[in-house]
Specification:
Length: 230
């Protein structure tokens, strides 16, 4: 059997460019963004499709956010919670019945455990306007800092009101909520494209580690996530 769980990494997060449709007049500050995750043919030929995550979900409210991705029918999941009231990130990792989390302060030039081994993304083009899922967006080209010869397209919007949504992530240069982007961890590249953006209530209680998760250290979380990518 091909190596399992190789694609379990996000958020997240991040190649379909489907700009078009009527621009929405109002921005939103609370809701859910659902992304489709796709892979290049080389990745698809190496791994069984059911082992690779196919969806990323971002929930947000009052600048709080939680990015979640699953594999193996939810048996394995990774989430990152940003809680500005507590001034902390929490990385949650579930592997079957094992549930772990690590919380760390939000600090300048410090990534949460999930992004600790992901290179920064650099922008290489001036933004052009674009309509995407009915939102007024900006479209740019970017590349991973260690691989400038392979640029990819990024689409983002300021109409989804999450303050500094990419702070303390490899996408810090992008000043808006991502709707299309790439994520690369080790040799696995994922293409994330928003499928829907819904305005709905997201309770603030969601933005804290669940009571059945056990606290651990950052290195343990980072090592486990790294292992899941192999």
């Amino acid at each position: 059997m091909r190596k399992p769980i190789a694609g379990l990494v996000i958020l997240s997060a991040f190649i379909l460019c489907s700009c078009g449709g009527r621009v929405k007049n109002n921005s939103i500050s609370e809701g859910v963004i659902t992304y489709d995750i796709t892979y290049d043919s080389a990745i698809q030929s190496r791994y069984d499709a059911w082992l690779l995550p196919s969806e990323l979900i971002v929930r947000f409210n009052s600048n709080h956010s939680i990015n979640s991705i699953e594999a193996l029918g939810g048996a394995i999941s990774i989430s990152i919670i940003k809680n500005p009231e507590r001034n902390e990130f929490s990385t949650l990792l579930k592997i079957f019945n094992k549930k772990l989390y690590h919380s760390e302060p939000i600090e300048q030039e410090r990534y949460p455990a999930l992004y600790s081994r992901m290179p920064a993304v650099k922008l290489i083009s001036e933004g052009e306007t674009c309509e995407f899922l009915g939102y007024s967006c900006t479209k740019v080209k970017g590349y991973f800092a260690d691989n400038p010869d392979f640029p990819f397209e990024i689409i983002y919007t300021s109409q989804i009101q999450i303050e500094n949504p990419n702070a303390h992530t490899p996408f810090e240069e992008v000043k808006g909520t991502l709707l299309q982007f790439n994520i690369r961890l080790n040799n696995l590249t994922m293409h994330a494209t928003a499928r829907s953006v819904k305005s709905e209530h997201v309770p603030l209680e969601l933005f804290a580690p669940p009571s059945d998760y056990v606290v651990t250290d950052s290195q343990t979380i980072a090592n486990l996530i790294y292992t899941l990518q192999q």
